[in-house]
Amino acid sequence: MIVxxxxxxxxxPKTPNTLKGINFTINQGEMVAVIGQNGAGxxxxxxxxxxxxxxxxxxxxxxGIDTKNTPVSVLAKHIGYLFQNPDHxxxxxxxxxxxxxxxxxxxxxxxxxxxxxxxxxxLLSLSGKxxxxxxxxxxxxxxxxxxxxxxxxxxxxxxxDEPTTGQDYRECIEIMDIVTAAxxxxxxxxxxxxxxxxxxxxxxxxxxxxxxxxxxxxxxxEVLRKAEKLAGTGLKPPQIIxxxxxxxxxxxxxxxxxxxxxxxxxMKGEKT
Length: 272
Hints:
Mean pLDDT: 91
Order of helices and strands: EEEHEEHEHHHEHEHEEHHHH
Strand order of the largest sheet: 6-7-8-3-9-10
Shape: globular
Radius of gyration: 20 Å
């Protein structure tokens, strides 16, 4: 679904490359997290996927489409993109029109627009806000309004830059459960997150970036055990993995249940 080959990107000929020799492939239906410190190139990489930025060198293909030679309006039919800051994304006069915009932009029938708009608004707890101006909402509500507009189109690929920004714990879980439901129906998800607990709980695969390069790419439970590399990107492992690493001998523990089972197994072995 996503193929990135030899990708390099610089904002201008006089500045160093922001992305340096990026290569990876993401298959349909994967949910992949991208992690790293501020300035690692994560958001710049995401913008390559929907054509907001074009490769300086190399190639980016999404849903079989070369992004370099394709208008953003065409890519929008296949790729839903959520900005880290919703204020950079929303612009309509009401929440309802914001949710409808993407569907109307790709020529969806009006009856389908109405049905999807109502359904998506209910899913994201926005049904009572449809006539409100988006900028009268809280930061978390604006983020959900932007996400609703993306989800309503039902794109093949969801690209999410910090999707839980401005949400409390309950709202984070609700949003990620909605994203997971879309993923289980076949939508490919690529998300940037600084929340390692969210990454551990939801992403099957994690790409770690540092200084514009990929330094790790693998199963989330394995990547998040690389404590030294995480520290080099200003991150820490999730608490349960940090505990397992500090105790030693619990290499397979990645959540409370597996940690408890590992402890039981070790205690049983010591008794025998």
